[in-house]
Write a structure and sequence with these properties.
about 40% helix; two-stranded antiparallel ribbon; mainly alpha; 10 helices; 3 domains
């Protein structure tokens, strides 16, 4: 088997890369080029163009070509992590390889193994994704009671109202993936949908911090409305 090194692209301009992509399209007589086709006929590789322009479809659009109907956008790590979080939530514990099948999981365990090298490494990458960004606010503001989560004016929030999926997972794991009011969980009652909600309502100045968030089932969350309550 003959192996050939890909030419060094560091000195190649964006226009040079795009011209090569257009050349492959002309050679094939098509208005679109797949990653596989470019790997076979291009001077560089599809990964090279993806790295240079951010996404393969961005390179295609910059070259004035159309996206192939055979092209499937690459699943991001975040999408894989969100799916893992969902499986973990439903089970109420760390999932195992056999849990990654439809309808519970959108992706098979082999998707994780191909992306990260092994299922164990996928779990390690998932855990590592929970960096200090989600807990920095808690460290700096040092809240210990519900009262200290209130700010002087409801309009002067120091955190975003949006609860990221990472913070959502951390709160649910802290609450054992159970509703803080009635105790129900997807693991005990299949079909249960959990939500993470502010203890002190956002409209009343409550911040988006783990200390001011709680896990509720759909029923209890609907009954809670925007009334502040102690979930203990």
């Amino acid at each position: 088997m003959k192996f050939e090194l890909e030419p060094d692209n560091r000195g190649a301009s964006d226009d040079t890369l795009l011209d090569d992509l257009r050349g492959v399209a002309r050679k094939l007589g098509e208005g679109c080029v797949t990653r596989k086709e470019y790997d076979e006929h291009g001077r560089w590789s599809a990964d090279t163009l993806s790295d240079r322009f951010g996404l393969w479809e961005t390179a295609i659009e910059r070259a004035g070509l159309t996206i192939s109907p055979l092209y499937h956008k690459r699943t991001t790590d975040d999408e894989l992590f969100e799916n893992l979080e969902h499986v973990w939530e439903v089970l109420g514990r760390q999932p195992k390889t056999h849990h990654f099948a439809k309808p519970l999981s959108r992706y098979s365990v082999f998707t994780y193994m191909r992306r990260f090298g092994s299922f164990r490494k996928a779990l390690e990458a998932f855990v590592a994704s929970f960096d200090n960004r989600e807990t920095d606010h808690s460290k700096t503001m040092k809240e210990t009671t519900v009262d200290t989560l209130l700010v002087a004016s409801p309009k002067r929030h120091r955190t975003s109202r949006t609860i990221s999926w990472r913070m959502r997972f951390l709160v649910m794991r802290r609450d054992d993936f159970k509703c803080r009011i009635c105790g129900t969980s997807p693991a005990l009652k299949p079909g249960t949908v959990l939500a993470v909600d502010h203890v002190v309502p956002w409209a009343d100045g409550g911040e988006t911090l783990t200390e001011n968030l709680q896990t509720l089932c759909e029923r209890c969350n609907g009954g809670k409305s925007d009334l502040p309550m102690n979930s203990d």
